[in-house]
Amino acid sequence: MPSYYGLGLGRIAGDVTVIQEGKSQKVGLVIQNITTFISGFVLAFVKGWKMTLVLLSALPLLAAVGALMTRFVTQNTSGGQGAYASAGGVADEVLSSIKTVYAFGSQKREILRYNANLDVAQRAGVKRSIFEGLGLGLMMMIVYFTYALGFWYGSRLIFDHTMTSEQVLNVIISLMLGAMSLGTASPYMSSISSAQGAAAKVYEIIERQSRIDPSADEGRRIDYSNPAKSLQGYIEFQDVSFTYPCRPDVPILKNFSLQVKPGQTVALVGSSGSGKSTCVQLLERFYDPTKGTVSIDGIDLKEFNIKDLRRSIGLEGQEPVLFGTKVEQACKLANAHDFISALPDRYDTLVGEKGALLSGGQKQRIAIARALIKNPRILLLHEATSALDTESEGIVQDALDKAARDKTTIVIAHRLSTIKNADLIVVMQQGTTVESGTHSELIAQEGVYAGLVRTQELRNLMNMHRY
């Protein structure tokens, strides 16, 4: 299954191209040809209304065939664009992780996965072409039968002296010009039908309403210039249960409860999948809990204005993400000033797309500085020193300890040596709390945390002897 990002990008790019093809000059050409068609039939009515009415008996058949063709073309265009979007998602996923693909030698597998989506698109395209060909063929067949009917009925009218040969020819030529214009417009109408099918999917994405709208102006405002509207930083998870929308059958948090006092530093520890990262995402209100409440200062997060809430929280993620702008907001607080000063353009250096021109440790330090620069009331540190060497880790950890003073801080860490000074350490397993206390208290309990510490110390010792 390709990534949702790549799938959505492929869907929009492909559909917009189809819309552009269907809505550019083709709309004007369709209007021109339909106008010619109507003009021809009006002229035919003026010259001989009886004969024109007989020939118009073919219009219901033309309309029925055109409607069926439009319906099938629209359906298969939508299916084909969906398959192209999936193929684009696979391509985006593979190209963004090309080193991993080569490392595992899975080039052929990924090519097969890409081709499988293209096969679906090809089948949809073949069906569309068949329906277009059959539809246009039937329409032209009806037109030619109408010509034959016109010549036969016109000759009868001439023999009966109801119309002159000149009038009959005027009617037939007018109708032929109108019918030819309609035939010319048919392929353009097919493109417009394809564009309508593509536009329906694009508008479905555009008009989709998120249950958590980050651009909404509603909600309780946070204003630090007004003590009554500022945050103190008291965080509480109360009987929180949560499942991700894409995996509703897999519970991540189960009746999880936690209280973090203002200015306190709390570390969340546990194996992968225990729910640590989910707690951070719930605090940022990327998701709402399935059950229970997450609150700050006793106020449910759902009541806050989302923009104000997120401005009040400094987040440093597990994988540092930088935008392709200048290094302007880094500071000594994250041990970043020295290496920035050594860059060719110092603070004006472009970091490249996603920080590609910097090392992992440099990106991490700038990302930490970005989290600290706005002086947030709440800090969320998700493996904030994971990409640093031992020397930088110690310096940055000291900086983080200083920055965390007077701030409510939640730390997620696999390097347990970085959380020894935390006011509270919470050990999580399968979405619940199994132990909590200070470092010394948990070591004395000889429980899960003590086992994790010993395992990590043993691993570090083995690595030292190895090198």
From TrEMBL:
Is this entry keyworded Repeat? yes
Bilayer-crossing residues are: 27-46, 53-73, 134-155, 167-189
Q: Which residues form the ABC transporter domain?
A: 235-455
One Pfam family recorded for the sequence = ABC_membrane
Q: Where in the cell is it found?
A: Membrane
Q: Which GO terms describe its molecular function?
A: ABC-type oligopeptide transporter activity; ATP binding; ATP hydrolysis activity
Q: Per UniProt, what is the membrane topology? A: Multi-pass membrane protein
Q: Which UniProt keywords apply?
A: ATP-binding, Glycoprotein, Membrane, Nucleotide-binding, Repeat, Translocase, Transmembrane, Transmembrane helix, Transport
Annotated GO CC locations: mitochondrial inner membrane
Family per similarity comment: Belongs to the ABC transporter superfamily. ABCB family. Multidrug resistance exporter (TC 3.A.1.201) subfamily.
Protein name stated in the entry: ABC transporter protein
Q: What is the lineage of its organism?
A: Eukaryota, Fungi, Fungi incertae sedis, Zoopagomycota, Entomophthoromycotina
